Amino acid sequence: MNDVKLAVLGGEGTGKSALTVRFLTKRFIGEYASNFESIYNKHLCLERKQLNLEIYDPCSQTQKAKFSLTSELHWADGFVIVYDISDRSSFAFAKALIYRIREPQTSHCKRAVESAMFLVGNKRDLCHVREVGWEEGQKLALDNRCQFCELSAAEQSLEVEMMFIRIIKDILINFKLKEKRRPSGSKSMAKLINNVFGKRRKSV
Ligand SMILES: Nc1nc2c(ncn2[C@@H]2O[C@H](COP(=O)(O)OP(=O)(O)OP(=O)(O)O)[C@@H](O)[C@H]2O)c(=O)[nH]1
């Protein structure tokens, strides 16, 4: 069974819990306790693989206090970064999070391949009070190798589900890439022997 760890990050009140709960229960509840962080568990079967999915939904207060994100970066296999299309400051926050995740020191730490990331412009039902254009979200995502969509946790159950499925699939692709890059024990030993004795033979 594969363990897939996903962190849902973003500014305060952008709808991180709404998206997570929508995906897990197909329901939109409206108000969520926001003073504690949660890790949700779900068993999934995707592409004939059994998965144990863990979704981390932080408490915004603690997230602000520890913007370094060090533990999340080590823990998560992928990130959903959420902003609210009707709140420009939440877009700036999402941008800062993306830069933090993509910055070279971070990418190098423990990661054989780049983390999967999905930028989500939530609250599309509020597009009459939109402050962030679709193109801006799309550009930020393209520039930073993220997937991108706008949706509404309040109104679009299927779109929310598809977004989570897409990032989980990206994470599974990364798992396969990591597996390929890791040389098997016997191959690396053969390479070592070849390097040592092959070179000696040449110099005789
Ligand atoms: N109109 C609209 N409101 C939404 C949507 N998603 C979430 N909300 C509302 O936005 C508010 C914040 O939603 P939460 O899911 O608690 O957001 P959060 O990012 O988890 O919040 P914190 O943990 O406090 O940062 C709530 O009042 C939700 O009902 C949406 O798609 N459309």
Automatic annotation (TrEMBL):
The organism's place on the tree of life at top rank: Eukaryota
InterPro entries according to UniProt: P-loop_NTPase, Ras-related_GTPase, Small_GTPase
EC class name: hydrolase
GO molecular function: G protein activity; GTP binding
The keyword Kinase belongs to this UniProt entry's keyword annotation: no
Reactions performed catalytically: GTP + H2O = GDP + phosphate + H(+)
Family classification: Belongs to the small GTPase superfamily. Ras family.
Name of protein: small monomeric GTPase
PROSITE patterns, A to Z: RAB (PS51419), RAS (PS51421)
Protein's UniProt keywords contain Nucleotide-binding: yes
SUPFAM superfamilies xref list: P-loop containing nucleoside triphosphate hydrolases (SSF52540)
Gene: RERGL
Keywords, alphabetical: GTP-binding, Hydrolase, Nucleotide-binding
The enzyme's E.C. designation: 3.6.5.2
